[in-house]
């Protein structure tokens, strides 16, 4: 059994997930839009371009997502999506791409006792992230 991250967005699902796939080396699959539902009663409130469901693979992991109608959208809290960078250069590249226009920065990039570089932020789409590069501090 393997858990799957499921993210919700306020009308920016396809844009966000495409950005994540490009930045993290993932691949977008199976995009179903509101307008793809065969019956109008099966559609969520909002336009036909809203994403009802989609998935992205990142290595062996799957991340799924959809847009949430305004009345159903809740700001994410109580979790962060954690990414382990393969190198310091990779950390810097990923951080620059994901943190551009960040809604909040909980911890700017810096050294910690467990990592050569670590950061926590909420991106422009509302997804909370933790980015880590352990480097020489690997146990």
Question: What keywords describe this structure?
Answer:
alpha/beta, Signal recognition particle alu RNA binding heterodimer, srp9/1, elongated
Explain this structure:
- The relative contact order is 0.19.
- The model has no long low-confidence stretch (mean pLDDT 94).
- The protein is elongated, with a radius of gyration of 16 Å.
- The chain folds into 2 domains: 5-67, Signal recognition particle alu RNA binding heterodimer, srp9/1 (2-Layer Sandwich), CATH 3.30.720.100; 81-137, Signal recognition particle alu RNA binding heterodimer, srp9/1.
- It has helices at residues 13-24, 88-99, and strands at residues 5-9, 27-33, 51-58, 61-67, 81-84, 104-110, 117-122, 128-133.
- Strands 1-4-3-2 form a 4-stranded mixed β-sheet, with helices on one face. A 4-stranded mixed β-sheet has the order 5-8-7-6, with helices on one face.
- It has 2 helices and 8 strands.
- The protein has 139 residues and is of the alpha/beta class.
């Amino acid at each position: 059994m393997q858990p799957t991250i499921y993210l919700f967005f306020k009308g920016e699902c396809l844009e966000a997930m495409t950005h994540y796939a490009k930045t993290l080396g993932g691949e977008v699959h199976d995009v179903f839009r509101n307008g793809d539902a065969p019956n109008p009663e099966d559609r969520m409130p909002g336009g036909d371009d809203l994403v009802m469901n989609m998935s992205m693979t990142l290595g062996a992991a799957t991340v799924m997502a959809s847009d949430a109608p305004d009345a159903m959208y809740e700001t994410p809290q109580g979790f962060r999506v954690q990414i382990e960078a393969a190198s310091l250069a990779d950390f810097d590249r990923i951080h620059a791409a994901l943190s551009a226009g960040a809604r909040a920065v909980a911890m700017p990039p810096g050294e910690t006792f467990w990592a050569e570089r670590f950061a926590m932020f909420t991106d422009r789409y509302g997804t909370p992230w933790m980015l880590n590069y352990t480097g020489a501090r690997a146990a």
